[in-house]
Each structure stands twice: as structure tokens, then as C-alpha cells.
Amino acid sequence: MAQPRYTYRRSFFSGYFTTGVKWLLIVNTAVFILMGLLSPQFTGDFMLLALAPVAVVKHFAIWQLATYLFLHGGVWHLVFNMLTLWMFGTPLERDWGTRRFLKYYFICGIGAGLCDVLLNAVIGKWDTSTIGASGAIYGLLLAFGVCYPDQTVLMNFLFPIKAKYMVMIYAAIELWMSTGVNSGVSNIAHLGGMVVGFVYLKSRVPGIRLKLPDWGGAYRQWKLQRAKRKFQVYMKKQGRGPWVN
Fold first, then answer.
1. pTM
2. Is 134 a catalytic residue?
3. How much is the CA Rg of the chain, to the nearest whole Å?
4. Catalytic residue among 134, 178, 183, 186
């Protein structure tokens, strides 16, 4: 079996912060604390940096596609995003370098924002407002699953699972939730971050080969195994067993 392009050997909790991850953590946390310290009227001014389709499309506030990434709606929103950034962003930055890592991070975040704006514009929800780094974070999750597919990680910080399966599960959950009732979470931004990250990795990052699962081959293998079991059952009933394989 071919070895993956990257091999991650260090513990997630090594206490080491790469440059790009460190500054993203600092800036996001500083903005959150500053918003908490300011009086409500100034906090409202900060929300002008949130991603609003009406502002981006009708008033050309294109900076919101980047600034919304640094705003968070609550302490747990910030904590989970920053923990995920640290856990999955650090090994990527070690292998890619700070410049490429930050470029990828913002490409995923801005791409996720564009997906959010376009969908809300199409369905007529011009007055929505989106904040948080989750679109970029989901792009990092996708990249981690591609670069370290067999690395065991803690899904939701609790359940050990291989990275490639974690990415598949998250993608399936976001796809399912995006078709349901509005929960106040921009699932399209999460999916957009993953899709943009996938396209970027496939076209721009050298040394990474992305292969989609061979669902047809897996289905044929399943049919073959089922036919084999039926045949064994039939032969056993005829008194010609047991069969050993």
C-alpha cells in the first residue's frame, strides 16, 4: 500500500504553536475580548465586519469576506474553533510553511463566505449575518484528512477515529443539516470551506494525490461476497460442507 504524502508523528498536545496558528489564535481571542469589554454601541460597530449578503452584493463591502472570520458569537464558539485550529492547523503549517498555510486558511474562509453570500442571495435572505472562522476550520479538517488519512484523532475531542473517516462524517452531517430547518448555523459555509479546500489541494499543492473512494469496486466486491455466502449455504444444505476459505 502506498504511503501517504505526509506522516504526522507528534502528539496533538505537544504544546508547540507554529507561527501562523499562534497569531490566528491571538487575533481571534483579542477581538473576542475587545468586543466583550466595549459598551454595546461599540460592539454594534464591530458587527459591521460580519458577513452580510446585502452589504457584500449591494454595497460592495467585500472586506467582510475576510473580517467575519475573526468574530465569534460566544465563548464556546471561540473555544471550539480555536482548539480545532490548533490541533489540525499546527501539523499542516509544519509541513507547508506559514505562508502556504495562511494562504490556504484564508482561501477556505473567503470561499466559505462566498458560498454563504451566494446561497442567501439566491433564496432572498439578504438580511442574514454570519460570523466565525468555521468555514476556514472545516477547510483545515479536510486538508488534515487528506494529508494524514490514517492518523488517529479525537472526534469532538472524545472519540478516537481515523482522520479520513472523521472528515467523511463531518461532511455528511453538514450536508444533511444544510437540507433541514434553519438552526442558526451556516452549514453551507462549512461545506463551502471543505469544497474550496478540496479543489485547492487537488489543483495547487504539490505531492498530494486525491483519490475518490471506488464505490463501484466496493459494491462489486460486496455482491461477490454475498453470492459466495449464498453458494456456501446451498452446498452445506446439500451435505457438501463445510467449506473453508
1. 0.76
2. yes
3. 22
4. 134
